[in-house]
Q: What sequence folds into this?
């Protein structure tokens, strides 16, 4: 039987809570004001074009452990009521392998997994279930794996999501690549806010394609990075943010990656530029804005750091730019904060500077 092509959309990071820097007026607050479908209103119609929709869920969707008197229990988490909406939007697969999924503890994590699974969304990067998740679409069998390579900051010890080394990831890809027509690998890796991957990331991505992966989709930097066709596969080093409330302009412009597959290969790929508006809603853009975002991504695709030192200088510069933007946001938004939570937030900032402890 002749198969038809399958169109897959891959999105960047999805965070349906409020960040500390936007607590009270971030994503979750906009949802509370406008309804659970609010973040998706400007993109849902286009996302419906995908045969398979995948993304990275950056925070739990659970009420477990919430304490209205303790700010760290409230930020970087969404409501469980958001889960059915993810299904309605069309998500088939979500990665949970990232450094924020255990921030609110094991119960909140497990409730998120259970809710997504009940809605028919495959959870990848979850160490409590089978590593490989599969979808058959139009006669083509797809396999999905997810791994985090970032150190856990909130809950030391064994994690419920998959935390793995480069060697372990290569081994898993080799193990499963021949069992499916196409293997998609989601990686939470790299450094925040930098527009180029490290030499080690490039080498690992090439190894994964060499060992049978068709698509490597990167997350964590919160900004878009380049796209590289390599061998028989495709590497998107970072898809940036999709839904987030970061107060930094560079994190508000990214993409949805469209990849078209036949049974044997990737037929084509394209960048669908997006911009996150002042209400924290992503929207597909066109015209000059779309061309500028696409041009930037093409430029990133030709850039690389020749040495580790050069890469670290870029990381440091990017992080300093982010910190300056956050400080300006605090000054601009100071009167939007609840004074009770603002006092806690300032105390936590001082504590983190002194101890480097994440709460």
A:
């Amino acid at each position: 039987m002749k198969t038809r092509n399958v169109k897959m959309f891959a999105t960047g990071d999805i965070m349906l809570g409020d960040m500390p820097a936007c607590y009270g007026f971030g994503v979750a607050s906009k949802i509370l004001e406008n309804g659970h479908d609010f973040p998706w209103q400007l993109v849902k119609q286009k996302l419906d074009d995908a045969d398979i929709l995948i993304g990275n869920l950056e925070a739990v969707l659970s009420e477990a452990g919430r304490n209205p008197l303790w700010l760290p229990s409230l930020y970087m988490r969404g409501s469980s009521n958001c889960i059915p909406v993810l299904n309605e939007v069309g998500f088939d697969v979500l990665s949970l392998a990232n450094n924020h999924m255990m921030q609110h503890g094991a119960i909140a994590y497990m409730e998120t997994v259970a809710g997504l699974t009940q809605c028919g969304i495959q959870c990848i990067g979850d160490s409590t279930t089978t590593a490989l998740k599969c979808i058959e679409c139009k006669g083509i069998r797809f396999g999905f794996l997810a791994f985090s390579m970032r150190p856990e900051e909130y809950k030391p010890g064994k994690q419920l999501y998959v935390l793995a080394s480069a060697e372990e990831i290569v081994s898993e890809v080799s193990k499963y690549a021949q069992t499916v027509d196409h293997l998609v690998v989601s990686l939470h890796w790299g450094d925040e806010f930098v527009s180029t991957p490290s030499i080690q990331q490039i080498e690992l991505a090439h190894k994964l394609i060499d060992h049978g992966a068709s698509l490597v989709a990167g997350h964590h930097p919160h900004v878009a990075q380049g796209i590289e066709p390599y061998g028989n596969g495709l590497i998107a080093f970072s898809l940036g943010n999709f839904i987030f409330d970061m107060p930094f302009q560079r994190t508000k412009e990214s993409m949805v990656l469209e990849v078209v597959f036949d049974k044997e290969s990737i037929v084509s790929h394209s960048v669908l530029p997006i911009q996150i508006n002042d209400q924290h809603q992503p929207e597909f853009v066109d015209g000059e804005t779309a061309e500028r975002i696409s041009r930037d991504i093409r430029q990133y695709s030709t850039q690389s750091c020749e040495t580790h030192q050069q890469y670290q200088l870029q990381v440091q510069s990017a992080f300093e730019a982010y910190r300056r933007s956050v400080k300006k946001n605090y000054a601009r938004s100071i009167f939007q904060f609840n004074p009770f939570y603002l006092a806690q937030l300032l105390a936590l900032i001082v504590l983190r500077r002194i101890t480097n402890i994440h709460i």
